[in-house]
Specification:
23 strands, alpha/beta, seven-stranded mixed β-sheet, globular, about 500 residues
């Protein structure tokens, strides 16, 4: 019997990754292609949907090039950042900031819509109850309102507004559908055990009632659960990607939520096993995911979202807007960064810290920062303060510009991020969650010091909490969200590389 394969594609902030996976779960290969992030002015972050689609096709072709019979590849699934894609009636890109350019995506990390978010929150609508009491300027409704106010030509020309994961399934199938995950978590789409749909009164109150025209066609009238089949590859997409038109395409899921699903579901045998787990998806930002059987409302923390990640469960989503990007900023802006000759800068810095710990007769590098402190909200606070105007701070700087100085600043930043996680857990616990286990995936989880710092900071919160150094499937995570589909639309949402 010939092998059966699936392809998962993850569009992150700065690159596109594709993975080829056997039906047994074995990862055959991975290919990554960088993509452009445009930062035309402070707080503006944009991308080009055509470039992203080309990178998707390039990475898929590369990872499947050794499979001669493409019909063996039975399923294709996507995860991506929750960024806003704007298209005209011919599905061509429309610029999202002044000037002639190809950038038609307002990225998840874009903070231009601060005033619009404040206005929406001033309405105190019931919808806001399901986003922690305040809509974030990282969500789509403030960005849509910003476009309507500041880009009138774009607004008039726009025929479709999509989350980036839904744009990818549209390009793959030619079919318009939206993922429940994206709409519930980022678009203020309402969903509970009995009903789901758009709240017209909310959109009217914030000045976006025109989006209700044609049965909400511009932002989504066909809504599907993540992992369900949304079509097969179109002829054009099959030609561009090198796959077969027989390939099934799954409804997408947001990248962090794919990681959350993998962490919370790892080795779980029932829904009961999911409760109490907190998954940290650590990339450019960090998302803190946990689920509950009943809705739990947590001030300053997004959700609860019904069936947005795990069917039949309510998702609560905390987060830190800048984590991996903050560490990169701290490192790259330091004079000693150029001294690193190791491809793995984290390994280099942690080696320096171990030497410093030995010289100072302390058991861990974490004891070296008693005079150096970082406040990590360099890009605002997502949770639990829900204040995008927050700024970062470093206290305890000296004239030292050596690699040792950089190493100390690095570990102080790690500690600051972990204390931010502790603050989120405290808010979750106060509101009714009982967190008993913390699991991590993503780039930062490759750092032993990052893991051990979590153990130090979180392990004292409760005797029952386990901050795992290595979850069995977590150490190296591929957030490919391989939505593997056969004739029964069976879903394999995440394939992991075992450590």
């Amino acid at each position: 019997m010939a092998d059966i394969y699936y392809v998962g594609v993850d569009v992150g902030t700065s690159n596109v990754r594709a993975a080829l996976v056997r039906h047994t779960g074995a990862v055959v290969g991975i290919h990554s292609v960088p993509i452009t992030v445009s930062n035309p002015k402070p707080d503006y972050y944009e991308q080009d949907s055509n470039e992203i689609w080309q990178a998707v096709c390039q990475s898929v072709k590369a990872v499947t090039c050794d499979i001669e019979e493409k019909s063996q590849i039975q399923g294709l699934g996507f995860t991506a950042t929750c960024s806003l894609v704007v298209l005209d009636k011919d599905l061509e890109p429309i610029a999202v900031s002044p000037g002639k350019n190809n950038f038609n995506i307002v990225m998840w990390m874009d903070h231009r819509a601060k005033q619009e978010a404040e206005f929406i929150n001033s309405q105190d609508h019931n919808v806001l109850k399901y986003v922690g009491g305040k809509v974030s300027l990282e969500m789509q409704t403030p960005k849509l309102l910003w476009l309507k106010k500041h880009m009138k030509n774009t607004w008039a020309m726009a025929a479709h507004f999509l989350d980036l994961p839904d744009f990818l399934t549209l390009k793959s199938t030619g079919q318009f559908s939206r993922s429940l995950c994206s709409l519930v978590c980022k678009w203020t789409y309402m969903c509970d055990e009995q009903t789901q749909g758009w709240d017209y009164n909310f959109f009217k109150a914030i000045g976006l009632e025109d989006l209700a025209d044609d049965d909400w066609n511009k932002i989504g009238k066909v809504v599907l659960a993540p992992g369900t089949q949304c079509g097969k590859l179109s002829a054009a997409a099959a030609l561009e990607s090198g796959l077969s038109e027989s390939t099934h395409v799954a409804t997408s899921i947001i990248d962090a939520h794919a990681g959350g699903l993998a962490l919370l579901a790892a080795d779980a045998t029932s829904k009961k096993n999911l409760i109490g787990r907190l998954g940290l998806i650590c990339g450019t930002s960090t998302c803190h995911m946990c689920v509950s059987v009943d809705p739990i409302f947590v001030p300053g923390v997004w959700g609860p979202y019904y069936s947005a990640m795990i069917p039949g469960c309510w998702l609560t989503e905390g987060g830190q807007s800048s984590t991996g990007s903050l560490i990169d900023h701290i490192i790259k802006s330091h004079p000693a960064a150029k001294e690193c000759t190791d491809k793995n800068v984290y390994k280099w810095l942690e080696g320096i810290l171990e030497e410093m710990a030995d010289m100072n007769f302390v058991s861990s590098p974490t004891y070296l920062t008693k005079d150096l402190h970082v406040y990590p909200d360099f890009h605002g606070n997502r949770s639990p303060l829900a204040d995008p105007s927050m700024m970062g701070m470093v206290c305890g700087l000296t004239l030292d510009s050596s690699s040792k100085s950089l190493a100390l600043l690095y570990v102080a930043t790690l500690q600051a991020l972990v204390y931010g996680t502790r603050q989120i857990i405290e808010q979750l616990t106060t509101s009714g969650h009982n967190i008993t286990c913390v699991l991590l995936c993503g780039g930062l989880s490759k750092s032993p010091l990052f893991i051990s710092t979590h153990v130090d900071a979180l392990g004292t919160m409760t005797k029952n909490m386990q901050c795992l150094k290595r979850c069995k499937l977590t150490r190296r995570s591929i957030k490919t969200s391989c939505m593997c589909l056969n004739t029964l639309c069976k879903v394999v949402v995440m394939m992991m590389i075992r450590a």
